[in-house]
Design a protein that fits this description.
alpha+beta; six-stranded mixed β-sheet; 4 helices; globular
């Protein structure tokens, strides 16, 4: 009888342990699926944002940016609030085509609560390969850009020439 009681007790402990383990695995799989679903939504959101610039759709492009957002361009002087960036970019949109950046590689990361995402992407542009990176927040209206940072990439083997070019440019600017 004592042996049977111990066997039942061991069975209950193992069953409870397995049940907890299976529940944890199910939660983890569900979270992973949710994360994958959100990544897909974010990819579409960012692709739509880039296409809005190509199509000169200012309403879609600027609506994707939160009111307090910041756009950092390739020049050291280019750190714009949404309002300032819209003022700068408006003439490009009015001409019928702002710019045409085509993403071809992107990584997306989500916070544990799923309300914040950060990403980096490589883009084909008129400047060559650029890297964009940014931060998004999930709002009642959907994902919004909080910050976007565009940078020109420079191959490591060309960095010395690049530094020399920038130094010459800065020196000529100071002489004017």
């Amino acid at each position: 009888m004592k042996s049977l009681t111990i066997q039942v007790l061991i069975f209950c402990l193992i069953s409870g342990s397995l049940n907890t383990s299976v529940s944890a695995q199910a939660r983890s799989a569900n979270k992973s699926k949710t994360s994958t679903d959100q990544s897909s939504v974010i990819h579409t959101f960012l692709d739509t944002w880039h296409k809005a610039a190509t199509d000169a759709n200012a309403a879609v492009f600027f609506d994707a940016m939160n009111e307090g957002s910041v756009y950092i361009g390739t020049d050291a002087t280019e750190r714009w609030s949404k309002e300032a960036f819209e003022k700068f970019a408006r003439p490009y949109f009015e001409r019928g085509k702002a710019w045409d950046f085509k993403p071809y590689e992107r990584e997306i990361h989500l916070s544990k609560d799923g309300r914040t995402a950060w990403f980096s992407e490589l883009l084909t542009t008129w400047m060559g390969v650029c890297r964009g990176s940014g931060i998004l927040t999930k709002t009642k209206a959907g994902w919004k850009i909080e910050q976007y940072h565009l940078s020109v990439t420079v191959p490591n083997d060309a960095i010395r020439d690049f530094i020399d070019l920038v130094n010459r440019f800065e020196q000529s600017r100071q002489q004017k």
